Amino acid sequence: MSIYSTPISTLDGQPNALSSLEGKVTLVVNVASKCGLTPQYEQLEQLQKNYASRGFSVIGVPCNQFLGQEPGTAEEIATFCSSTYGVTFPLTEKIEVNGDNRHPLYESLTPVVDEEGVNGDIRWNFEKFLVGRDGSVIARFHPKTAPDASDVIAAIESAL
Cβ(26)–Cβ(58) under 8 Å? Predict the structure, then answer.
């Protein structure tokens, strides 16, 4: 099943945040504003700029499940992302990625195995999933894997 049909709202409350990305290669990333990995926003935005014209998009999925590192309101998150990192890629509503209230998007993503052979629960903020144009998950990357790491770039290039 295509993840692009999964219902999830944009950060500003518009429905179907993923449907506008259908047919693109997408990097889905659970994000947080107060994490040691938050500077990855810079690299994510650079990927957006480098590959958007080729049918690629990053989508950030705010989550507050890891030590409360995304405590803000939708407006605070949007302001932080745009003013601190110049983020232009779409952001979804804040959701839960693990546990009993795990969002259906992450029900689809978490069975995928990463480069270390790990699947299941999201380990931390900035875990990345590369999704193909058809909505199938191509790859999963550890939170500490930089968005511009050679294996991430190679996977994006191959999918485009």
Answer: yes
pLDDT at 2 over 90: no
The count of other CB atoms within 10 Å of the CB of residue 140 is 23
Q: Is the dihedral of CA 110, 11, 36, 25 positive or negative?
A: positive
Q: Which of 9, 16, 35, 80 is catalytic?
A: 35
Q: In which element (H, E) is residue 106 found?
A: helix 104-109
Helix (H) or strand (E) holding 108: helix 104-109
pLDDT digits (tens, 9 = 90+) for 98-130: 999 999 999 999 999 998 999 999 999 999 999
Q: Any catalytic annotation for residue 35?
A: yes
The whole-model pTM stands at 0.97
CATH code for the domain defined by 3-159: 3.40.30.10
How many Å apart are CA 156 and CA 104, to the nearest integer?
24
Domain extent listing, the chain:
3-159
